[in-house]
Write a structure and sequence with these properties.
The structure is a homodimer of 310-residue chains. Chain A is α+β, with helices and mostly antiparallel strands and 310 residues long. The first copy, chain A, has one domain: (Glycosyl)asparaginase (Glutamine Phosphoribosylpyrophosphate, subunit 1, domain 1, 4-Layer Sandwich). Chain A is built from nine helices and 13 strands. An eight-stranded mixed sheet of chain A has the order 4-3-2-6-5-1-12-13. In chain A, a hairpin with a 4-residue loop joins strand 8 and strand 9. In chain A, helix 2 packs antiparallel against helix 3 and helix 8 crosses helix 9. Chains A and B meet through strand 3, strand 4, helix 4, strand 7 and helix 7 of A and strand 3, strand 4, helix 4, strand 7 and helix 8 of B. Strand 7 of chain A pairs antiparallel with strand 4 of chain B, so a sheet runs across the interface.
Chain lengths: 310, 310
């Protein structure tokens, strides 16, 4: 029997039910369902986990509710700089891109880099040039304009403090990321992550989302992981690969490894984070130490699950 | 008794004795000795391993023999784009920088990012802006001009093939990196890596050198690592952190972990690489599967060791 599964996230943070309207909640849930269903249909038609995670992330990138692609936040200069990465657990091939502007779907560019370049990681103008050479879709600045993101930006500019502001509210804004992990019918794992960065970010800051090992990792022998949370800490702790290394070298389960990383290692240093992961046995973990994480999953023999809060 | 140690590298690759003159060999060796000795003196005066690795890498960056800082190769556009990273094994703090031009010492910028910004990883123009704000030394393009590097560049441009050219000679050119790892008298480990990238590189390519976990990693509980070799593979295999994870999760020695990573994992996929590492017990490993690696080390109770070939 076919054993397939997919999980997606739309970011973790201080997502409070008290601040959510029923309509907004319904919008988030139906958006997650759309992305998950498309990924699931791909897996169901025996296509690859790579295709499934790419497509699920692409749909989340096209949705202004999430901080990735169309919904990307504003940088200090009022631009939208996006990062993404994708990894194939079968070949350990990967593609990463950071600080790109006007690319409609950074996850498609990450895959293009993986498959059509001699490199793993391209950045900025050079990456845009590579995208143009391969006819990837560009969008004008207006496409990425969103009234809510713009007000966040103006507010941040005025205070000039978002980056240092660790109020609960600002943390929600900071941790916007989308991601997907999947297992296909051939037993191949894949992971993808995409983000629009931090509101009012300066100095060409890069977080964990484009970095293999930090924000994204996939290996058929262990698991596929996509992270969301404090990018600075993920970079230093090599979080996504750490889940895989714990499974491989300690011989523990996906759930034990993911829990150890998020609830012991990350919680110990008071960092708010979450991750989704799937292993070769189709076990799915969606773990976070924040108030909430936009998330959804479906797998063989199990109904669709869509959740926001704990 | 004080137990301190430091190891440095100036890149691994197809370094053939048959292509080396006695003068060139002597130049490389005395350059390595200069950098090592400065790092050693810092450790000997009870200063931190962080200071020692930073200074050793800074000296290598100032030497045109090595592909980092002053000796950086030319990109496709005829620029010098540099990457560096540094990590403190005590705090797990880190600083990373990529694609910066005209910065005299990228390793100093990496440390500045670690200590004076809220971020871990800055890139390109934004990182240069941050450097300027903190009065870091900039140099004009002429400072980075080197006749030999320029002829490599013209040759690569003419063939437009360096990136794909896997001839032995070109591999030497590609794998230029410098790095240092050290243990100080307080038992703190640190690592730093710096590179001038690949000759004729395009599209804003980023390798492993600025990435924590890939090219650089340090953790007082395990080891400090700096890699040199195929950056694309290091990114995908999370090489530097892998040595640490093997020690921590499998409870094996530094030497066993480093050998497993370089001689089993990397050799299996025919990737030519090397790394230097030091652990909390002051064991030093300098391992590579190439013809040579510019390397040097010194530690309490052991004489200075400077080597190029196997």
């Amino acid at each position: 029997m076919k054993n397939i599964g997919i999980a997606i996230h739309g970011g973790a943070g201080t997502i409070l039910k008290s601040k959510m309207t029923p309509q907004k909640e319904a919008d988030f849930k139906s958006s997650l369902e759309d992305a998950l269903t498309e990924g699931w249909n791909i897996l169901n038609s025996n296509k690859s986990s790579l295709d499934a995670v790419e497509r699920a992330v692409e749909i989340l990138e096209n949705n202004p509710l999430f901080n990735a692609g169309k919904g990307s936040v504003f940088t200090h200069e009022g631009k939208h700089e996006m990062d993404a990465s994708i990894m194939d657990g079968k070949t350990l091939n990967a593609g990463c891109v950071s600080s790109v502007c006007n690319i409609k779907n950074p996850v498609l560019l990450a895959r293009l880099i993986m498959e059509k370049s001699d490199f793993v990681y391209l950045n900025g103008k050079g990456a845009e040039e590579f995208a143009a050479k391969h006819n990837l879709v560009f969008e004008k600045n207006e496409y990425f304009f969103d009234e809510y993101r713009y007000s966040q930006y103006l507010n941040a500019l005025e205070k000039d403090s978002v980056i240092l502001d660790h109020s609960d509210e600002d943390k929600t804004k900071k941790f916007g990321t989308v991601g997907a992990v999947a297992l296909d019918s051939k037993g191949n794992l894949a992971a993808a992550t995409s983000t629009g960065g931090m509101t009012n970010k300066k100095f060409g800051r890069i977080g964990d989302s484009p970095i293999i090992g930090a924000g994204t990792y996939a290996n058929n022998f262990t698991c596929a992981v996509s992270c969301t949370g404090n990018g600075e800490y993920f970079l230093r702790s090599v979080t996504a690969y750490d889940v895989s290394a714990l499974m491989e070298y300690r011989n523990i389960s996906l759930n034990e490894a993911a829990k150890f990383v998020v609830q012991v290692k990350l919680k110990a240093i008071k960092k708010k984070n979450g991750l989704i992961a799937i292993d070769k046995y189709n076990n799915i973990s969606m773990i976070f130490n924040t108030k909430g994480m936009y998330r959804a999953s479906i797998k063989t023999g199990k109904d669709i699950e869509i959740k926001i809060y704990k």
